[in-house]
Amino acid sequence: MAHFQFDEANHVYALGSRHVPSVTQVLEGTGMAPDLSHLPDFYRRRGSAIHKALALHLVGKLEQASLDERIRPFVEAGQAWLELVEARPKVVEHRWVHSVLEYGGTLDLFAETKLGPLFVDWKATMMDEAYEVQVAGGYQPLLLEAAEQGAVAVDPEAVTEARMAVVTLKGRAKPHFIPKHNNAGVAQTDVFRAALTVAKWRQAHRRFQP
């Protein structure tokens, strides 16, 4: 039994009776994420559909003929890239809440590849610096704790050593490999934890609702 709860309808993570923020909410709530509020809801729903289709593909359950034509080019770009790197999925769309730091998130993909172990986050179109913090600062510690607790069949050392990449899917899939430190030499985990502290302060003072 999982140590956390997840309300899928409202996309809310909880530990017992306490709501905890998601990685995305932390970055949005501290003004670090790109502002996409001006975009129609179609783009959010398209992104979710692309993620779902690639997850189904990775577990061998995607019916290719059923793909909506509006997402087909993105999904096929992802499939071609997975074939190129000879990806062998180990973790696909796995939710986790960090039991110590108390935040949650859904991990897109951890795979063995010809490049070695690789932690992947899918994005439909663009890359942004905030995504480096999202993946290396927020998601990687989630996967590491899940591995340490035996929630996923992955060696924690492989998680620590893995390369990380945001893979954009518009046109031809392109991996954007993520450094563990930003341009100022600060660890991405430290940047994320600072944002998490601010986000929790805002939550406690009712200025941020997860």
Write a structural description.
This protein is an alpha+beta fold and 210 residues long. Helix content is 39%, strand content 23%. The protein has six helices and eight strands, in the order βββαααβββααββα. It has helices at residues 23-29, 41-58, 72-84, 129-148, 156-161, 188-204; strands at residues 5-7, 12-15, 18-20, 88-97, 104-113, 116-123, 163-168, 174-177. A hairpin with a 6-residue loop joins β4 (88-97) and β5 (104-113). The mean pLDDT is 94.
Quick rundown:
The protein has helices at 23-29, 41-58, 72-84, 129-148, 156-161, 188-204; strands at residues 5-7, 12-15, 18-20, 88-97, 104-113, 116-123, 163-168, 174-177. By secondary structure, the chain is α+β, with helices and mostly antiparallel strands. The longest helix has 20 residues, at 129-148.
What is the strand arrangement across the widest sheet? Answer: 4-5-6-7-8
How does the helix and strand content classify structurally?
A: alpha+beta
- Helix and strand element order: EEEHHHEEEHHEEH
Instruction: State mean pLDDT (0 to 100 scale).
Output: 94
Portion of residues within helices: 25-40%
Terminal Cα span: 23 Å
Largest sheet: 5 strands, mixed
Rg over CA atoms: 17 Å
Q: Count of DSSP helices?
A: 6
Low-confidence stretches: none
Shape: globular
Strand residue percentage = 15-25%
